[in-house]
Amino acid sequence: MADHAKRAATNAALSLRAPRSASGSPPVAEDAAWHRRLRTLSLMFFTLGGLALCYTLAAPFLPAASWALALAVLFAPLQRRLEALLKLPGLAALFSLLIIALIVVVPGSFVVQQLLMQLISGAQLVQAKVQSGEWQRLIEAQPRLMPLVAWVEQRIDVAGAVATLSSRLTAAAGPLVRGSAYQLLGFCLSFYLLFFFLRDRHSALHAMRRLLPLRDAEMDHLFLRVDDTIVATVYGTLAVALAQGLLGGLMFWWLDLPAPLLWSLVMSILAAVPMLGAFVVWLPAAVFLALQGSPGKALILILWGLMVVGTIDNLLRPILIGRRLKLHTVLAFISLVGGLLLFGAAGLILGPVILTVTRVLLEIWQTRSQTADAIPASPDAGD
């Protein structure tokens, strides 16, 4: 009894000696908790700062990485077949690059080179017709256009403007060649990244599984939706480009322009390039018709190009992509146009992918919340 009374007195004295906070916790425990919170906040701050710096470093490479990612998703079946055949992922990725280059780069380079040559020669032809007076004679042969021509000539020096434009286009050949070299560098960077996307895709996906706080089933669902988004975007773009080329080629055939099938193919290829389009073909063709004394045909071609060929892109692409992704047309349109405005040409891929990732993450949050609400609360231990 004496020992018990002595221990009770000692504990009472210690409790009186150690002050407690309002919450009942000793100061040492509060200090430890405060230090843990401080370390956590510091870790979050430096992590977010590091991520922001990493994004700044990677931002210049986003266009190349976006196209490399799109090509990696599209040609993943080819890579898997080559890996099964060659048993070496690196060698299979190298052969995949060669095949992709033959399919994508060679036709595109040929079309751009031919269009550049036609643009310069067409500008020189326009300048020659204006300086020789043939343009004026063609206009005078159309009395109904004379009031419009007189109004334009009062405000614009047509001959001087055409001569200046022609000389600038001719002088721009050098910068265009340098720009082509810059584009070639971008292609090389895309293919450099594509090689590693193809060869190391399994390790990259495994690293993402370890870093992201998602379950395996959720990660599989996210990867599948991103793949579907990229495939839908690329195939939707190609389908719209083919439709634009077909419509433009039909008008070329109806107006009796030369080689309508060839120019239909060229317009399809150009329509698939985000920063170009089919107008690169039909607009010079309209100028050609006007110079040949067919202003009516030129006007028809311009109206067809603006009202049909040009608008079908904004109408058909969101519908095709939204239908494939089960996404409302307005959301698909915003993701495409917003991506182009924010990221440039790479936004054609990044915009829909960002929307898809956000949508999947919101669905995961919703599923987890519903699962948590469905689990009944466990009874208290004392009940």
UniProtKB/TrEMBL annotation:
UniProt keyword terms in alphabetical order: Membrane, Transmembrane, Transmembrane helix
Cell compartment(s), UniProt: Membrane
Residue ranges of the TM segments: 48-76, 88-112, 180-198, 229-255, 261-291, 298-320, 332-362
Superkingdom of source: Bacteria
Pfam families: AI-2E_transport (PF01594)
Record's keyword annotation contains Nucleotide-binding: no
Cellular component per GO, a single term: membrane
Keyword Transmembrane helix: yes
InterPro entries attached to this UniProt entry: AI-2E-like
Topology in membrane: Multi-pass membrane protein
Family to which the UniProt record says this protein belongs: Belongs to the autoinducer-2 exporter (AI-2E) (TC 2.A.86) family.
Protein name: Predicted PurR-regulated permease PerM
